[in-house]
Structures are given as structure tokens and as C-alpha cells.
Amino acid sequence: MDPLSGIFLIALGSIGAASFYVPFKKVKSWAWESYWISQGFFAWIVIPWIFAFIFVPRGELIPIIKESPASVKFMVAFFGMLWGFGGLTFGLALRYLGIALGQSIALGLCAAFGTLLPPVIAGENLFSTKGGILTVIGVAVTVAGIIIIGYAGSLKSREMPEEDKKAAVREFALKKGILIAVFAGIMSACFNFGYEAGKPMEEIALAHGTNPLYQKNPSLIFILLGGFLTNLVYCVFLNIKNKTYKDYYTVSGGIFANNLVFTFLAGLLWFLQFHFFGMGSSKLPAGMAIFGWSILMALNISISNIWGIILREWKGVSAKTIAVLITGIVVLILSAFLVKLG
């Protein structure tokens, strides 16, 4: 157990998670659905296998997968498919709100509901224990933080000239973006369910000599496979509906290569959050392990807002609006820890 190293590793993953949308700024001549599924192919199919082959003992990955019960693999992939709706709409939330506002709302809800939903589904009475009451209070504080950040977004929408909004976020749409971000945050909590369902696979991985730092890598393959299938269906639908399937073969070879490079980079940055989260969680002692998910979400929110400032998503707004935004971020981060404390 090494808590400081664990938090440092989770922080590395957070940097990747909060930064993954930035490479999309360099993608040229592709519609959103085209570059989104391209990064998804790398993040959810290619890279998980590469990392698993690298970090699981040589020759053991396939036996681990074969020995894992079919029911476990199915449930892990099923929760991955549910998370896929969250991942898909998460991308839409960032498309309409920008990196700072979109990630703050979606990740705040993800942190809260990732803890609240499992006991509710299991039929537990959350008001019967102090822990349950704290959890409910934490979710209420999360909602308060989201309302505050949403208010900051409405102030931004009123204060920023239209050309500045479009320059920072090309398709800025506050109401649509907030609704999508709320849905994304709730559905993204299913990723945590996938981890829980994959624990038997982790035990098999450990039995095959896998370092505890990387015991979650085999489970990630199936969680992300499920998520990829959900996103693939929707993106292919949009490709056909919008006739953007031409994106893949009408651009020049140079632009095609450029887009592959930057969508691969986006996919790699996205995947690193869960690779490092798995490593960092394994180093936290039992008393701190419950905070791992909150640490990841809180750092994601903080770093995404740093990117929002760097990319001038809040350029030209008043000091009052920035103060409201910061207040909402602080409330969201505190709520994440309060939920996990519960």
C-alpha cells in the first residue's frame, strides 16, 4: 500500500481524461460522428488489447479470458454497453458545452450516481444508516453544484458575444448540452458496475501471475467492447443519415493520416484514465480505496476547467460569472468526496 503513489497515478489518469478532447481541435474535414468513432475504435478496441498484452504476463491473457465464466464476460460487456450511452452522450455534451462546462456537469453526476445507484438497485434503505444519509446528502450537494455551474453557463451565454462563443465551442447550445450532460453523467456510472461485475476475472488474472497493478486490464477489454458497440451503431446511423460516410475516403491522404493520428492520440489519452485508475486504486489501503473514484472525478473536473481557461471557453465573461463557475466546481468536488464518505 502506498497512498501517495496511488493518488499520483490516479492524477496521471485524470490528466489524460480531462485532455482527451483537445486533439479533436486538430481534426480536419470530418464530422463529429466520424472522428468520434475513430477515437472510439482506438480507445475501446485497439488500445485495451495492446495494454493487456503488454501488462498481463506473456501468454496468459487468452487463458484468463477463456477461464472467465461466460456469464461474467456477458455482464461486464452489458454494463459496458450501458456505459456506452453515457460515453456517447458525454462526447455530445462536450460538443455542445465545451470541455469545462460539459465535463463538470457530466463527471459530477457520474461520481454521485456511480455510488448511489448500486445500493438503490439492491433494495437497500439509504436512510437507515448514517452512511446512507451521507450518500443522499452528497448527491443533493452534487445537484446543487450542477445547478450553480449551469447558472454560470447561462451567464456565459448572455455575456459572451455570439462570435466568441462559436470560436470557443463551435456548436455551443446550453439547454441541449445540459440535458445531454445530465444523461451522460447518470449512464457513465455504469462503468463502475462493469468493474464490479468483472471482479471474478480479476481474481483469475491474479491467479495467472498478473501484477495487482494491472489486474483490471482484462475486464477493461470487455467493458470497452460493450461501449464501442453502442457508439458504433449511433455513429454509423449518423454517417448514413448525414452522408458523412464519405469523410473516410474523400479527404486527401495527408488529412486522413492527420485525422488518424489525432483521433488515436485522443483515444490513448482517454484510455489512460482507467489504466492509471486501476493502478492507483490497487495502491490505496482499504480505508482510502473508497475515495479512488471520487479522486478521479474531482481531478477530471479540475483539470478540464484548466483546459477550458486555456482554450478560452470563458473568454470575455465577467468576474461574477467566473466566481459562480469556481463556486460550482468547488461544490462538485466536495460533493464527490461526501458521496464516497457515505
Task: Give a written overview of the molecule.
The chain has 342 residues and is an all-alpha fold. It has one domain (3-341). Helices cover 80% and strands 0% of the residues. It has 16 helices and no strands. The model has no long low-confidence stretch (mean pLDDT 82).
Break the fold down into its secondary structure elements and pairings.
Elements: H1 3-19, H2 32-55, H3 61-67, H4 70-97, H5 99-121, H6 130-159, H7 162-168, H8 174-188, H9 190-197, H10 199-207, H11 217-241, H12 247-250, H13 253-283, H14 286-289, H15 292-310, H16 319-341
Helix pairs in contact: 1-13, 1-15, 2-11, 2-13, 4-5, 4-8, 4-9, 4-11, 5-6, 5-8, 5-15, 5-16, 6-16, 15-16
List keywords for this structure.
single chain; globular; mainly alpha; 16 helices; 342 residues
Q: What can be said about this structure in brief?
A:
By secondary structure, the chain is mainly α. The chain is built from 16 helices and no strands.
